[in-house]
Design a protein that fits this description.
The protein contains one helix and eight strands. The strands form two sheets. A five-stranded antiparallel β-sheet has the order 1-2-7-5-4. A three-stranded antiparallel β-sheet has the order 6-3-8. The radius of gyration is 21 Å and the shape is elongated.
Length: 166
């Protein structure tokens, strides 16, 4: 190794150690919380050829040492009424209505816990002001079209949001 290669390797090692120290520092000197706005679909016409869509929000709020970068992951559970993520199910008594929650408006990636083909959402917050810093993550909901066997009723589900920060 020449002198420049050794300096680059040492610099890379120092940056990696600094990043690990910052992550460990967060566990001791910062705190984060999560709040949500639910996905409310409103009325659903089971004979419609169009899917019903709506959106909600997951807000992550962190506070702590200024200048600290706080990486985090957001996972969503499968819900209270379905055995898996695809599809999730809302319930009205014993009746079910299939739906799902996605990471984007294209409805391509199911937001879950990383299992069964789902994806968690990963991001970070830079603590750049005194007090708390918040970041919003839209939740995109979709009920597939033509669920003709669905009876009238009020359908609901409960999703657990898990925030893990480092």
């Amino acid at each position: 190794m020449n002198g420049k290669t050794i300096i680059r390797a040492m610099l890379a090692l120092l940056l990696a150690l600094a990043a690990r120290s910052a992550f460990a520092l967060c566990v001791l000197t910062c705190s984060c919380s999560v709040s949500t706005t639910g996905v409310a679909f409103g009325g659903y016409n089971p004979l419609s050829a169009s899917a019903a869509t709506s959106s909600g929000n997951v807000r992550v709020t962190c506070g702590g040492v200024l200048g600290l970068l706080v990486p985090y992951d957001i996972a969503l559970s499968k819900g209270a009424n379905a055995p898996g993520f695809d599809p999730r199910q809302m319930a009205s008594g014993s009746r079910r209505l299939s739906y799902n929650l996605y990471t984007s408006g294209s409805h391509a990636t199911i937001w879950g816990d990383g299992s069964g083909g789902t994806q968690i959402v990963s991001s970070s917050i830079l603590l750049s002001v005194l007090g708390n810093v918040s970041q919003d993550h839209p939740v995109h909901g979709r009920i597939p079209a033509r669920q003709a066997g669905v009876a009238p009723g009020t359908y609901t589900d409960t999703i657990q949001v898990t925030l893990t920060y480092y």
